[in-house]
Design brief:
heterodimer; A: 261 residues; mainly alpha; 11 helices; globular; B: 307 residues; alpha/beta; four-stranded antiparallel beta sheet; 35% helix
Chain lengths: 261, 307
């Protein structure tokens, strides 16, 4: 089982590494926001330096969905032009095909987040990370990545062509980002939108990331209305993990059903 | 080695692709499923390789029930698909390694199998640089790396030019010599079926309409046939020939063409009797029966046209 999943993940990693488009394109927009737009807003609107840090972490909430959904394209390519049917005829549980892809998605997204934050630090943006804070951040990003890759696998299994898949990316990857407190607190929106934002897993993930790397608990307070930030962080992490688990189970079910005609 | 009993598949929407077929393939046998596109051949292979769920009946591959123990059935078999199914950006070696790792055996055989299949020189090149024939050979090599007991070949030569097709047929023919390798091949090419297969099942609209050795299937039509072109409807002419004992139950008409197996009669005597009946014959010829005639008699359509 371990050897099979290592083989499948190795294959997916090799294929992904041979298509730099999949690695670079998702990084461009978040990097633009973090490194150009946020500093420009600071200059133009005289926002405090902390706003740059706020936006830099907010862009992680854009990078994760973009990257995982781009990686989902690989599933369609595999089905249309690759070796997916050979893998389906292999004596391994078909769920491992999804898990092999997921491992690579988590690894590549992790590298991209590290790159984005590294660039942000190089640009002079400051974070206040503690060991515990980093753990909250890692939990939030890992959970969000798993969840969004689940979305990608489900879409890729249900959508027959690449063009149709790509057409749906903005609605899934970008629209929630604007509502989830990425560029401004969710309480800055009309009350109805604030309530919608509270139910978005991305809102919970971003609030956790800022709590972890900036020590900023305002996002968690806005969601849970409690001053016990540790409790709020735990609840938000549970939401993100539950979301990830649910979508992974869904992805495996949809993939295995689609594989059996 | 392969047992199929009343196997059927109805796709959502009610399309009956396979309608209760049964057959058994012995160890070491090369068994052909012959029929046009849409006959149910690929669906049958899909069910045997556990990528299509049967809606009725059962099948065993290497003694393993494909529904109850699909992993075991997949472990003893390999498949070469009708369309290219390969990671094109990876090297041939990487594709073979992937198969060997997933099947849990054969990494030490990669170079030997690749050389035997004529792709040893190409093995370290990306597959996207291979020609169609080379890619097909690589896919067969990949299927053999894990030393399967059952090899499924789904239309292995479709889409290849005649020269490459001839070469590949030679390669597949060589596999017959391998001990303990049972092959199930689907094709709509008669020459391919005759050359490769010990036995053939002719499929038509999801059913097996004949199953025997190529020779036995041809022998049903005797050693020689008379083919008549009729000016008008062939079936009424056939009825008159039967009425006068010139044609037996194996004779058949398709459109304006009548095919009359001679069986124990001579061509000269048969043609003379036909002349006496004053049928509106526009041309007459004699020849040896082919599998196409067998198919035509069983299904009412020529295989080459149907494919």
């Amino acid at each position: 089982m371990t050897a099979a999943i290592a083989t499948l993940a190795g294959r997916r990693f090799t294929l992904t590494a041979r298509t730099p488009r999949e690695l670079l394109v998702p990084l461009l927009t978040p990097a633009l926001f973090a490194l150009v737009i946020a500093p420009a807003l600071k200059t133009a609107l005289h926002t405090p330096a902390s706003y740059e840090s706020y936006v830099a972490l907010g862009t992680v909430g854009l990078l994760v969905p973009l990257n995982t959904l781009f990686l989902g394209l690989g599933v369609i390519v595999d089905r249309e032009q690759g070796a997916q049917r050979e893998l389906l005829a292999a004596p391994v549980p078909r769920a491992l095909l999804v898990f092999g892809n997921l491992i690579v998605a988590v690894a590549i997204t992790g590298l991209q987040i590290a790159t984005l934050l590294g660039l942000a630090v190089a640009r002079g943006i400051h974070f206040h990370a503690t060991a515990g804070g980093v753990l909250w951040f890692l939990g939030a990003t890992a959970g969000l990545t798993v969840a969004m890759y689940g979305v990608a696998e489900i879409l890729a299994s249900r959508i027959p062509r690449q063009e149709e898949y790509i057409a749906r990316l903005p609605a899934i990857a970008i629209a929630p980002w604007f509502l989830a407190g990425s560029l401004f607190p969710i309480t800055a929106m009309p009350i109805g939108m604030t309530w919608v934002a509270r139910f978005l897993p991305l809102t919970h993930a971003l609030a956790l990331m800022r709590y972890g790397l900036l020590g900023d608990g305002a996002g968690l307070h806005n969601v849970w209305k409690t001053n016990n930030l540790h409790l709020a962080a735990s609840l938000s992490l549970a939401v993100v993990i539950a979301f990830g688990a649910l979508l992974t189970v869904g992805a495996v079910r949809v993939f295995t059903r689609a594989a059996m005609r | 080695m392969i047992e199929v009993d009343a196997l059927s598949k109805v796709y959502p929407g009610g399309v009956e692709a396979v309608r209760g077929i049964s057959f058994a393939v012995e160890p070491g046998e090369v068994f052909g499923l012959l029929g046009p596109n849409g006959a149910g051949k690929s669906t049958t292979i899909g069910m045997l390789t556990t990528t299509i769920a049967p809606t009725g009946g059962f099948a065993r591959v290497g003694g393993h029930d494909v529904l109850r123990d699909p992993m075991a059935a997949r472990r003893v078999s390999s498949v070469v698909f009708q369309d290219p199914v390969v990671d094109r950006s990876l090297t041939g070696r990487r594709n073979l390694e992937l198969h060997a790792r997933l099947w849990g055996s054969g990494r030490d055989r990669i170079d030997g199998v690749a050389s035997a299949l004529g792709v040893g020189e190409l093995i370290d090149r990306p597959v996207e640089t291979y020609s169609g024939g080379q890619r097909r050979r690589l896919e067969i090599a990949r299927a053999l790396v894990s030393e399967p007991r059952v090899l499924f070949l789904d239309e292995p030569t479709v889409g290849l030019d005649p020269r490459i097709r001839a070469e590949l047929l030679g390669t597949i023919s060589d596999l017959r010599g391998r001990r303990e390798l049972t092959i199930l091949v689907t094709t709509h090419y008669l020459d391919e079926a005759e050359r490769l297969c010990d036995r053939i099942a002719i499929m038509h609209e999801g059913r097996i309409v004949a199953l025997d050795t190529p020779t036995a299937l041809r022998d049903e039509l005797g050693a020689e046939i008379v083919e008549l072109r009729i000016d008008g409807d062939g079936s009424s002419a056939l009825a008159r020939l039967r009425e006068h004992g010139v044609a037996g139950s194996t004779a058949f008409a398709v459109g304006s063409t009548l095919t009359v197996p001679l069986m124990q009669r001579t061509a000269a005597a048969t043609l003379a009797e036909i002349e006496l009946l004053r049928l509106p014959v526009t041309s007459a010829s004699t020849r040896r029966p082919s599998l196409d005639d067998v198919y035509l008699r069983l299904t009412g359509g020529r295989l080459a046209e149907a494919a």
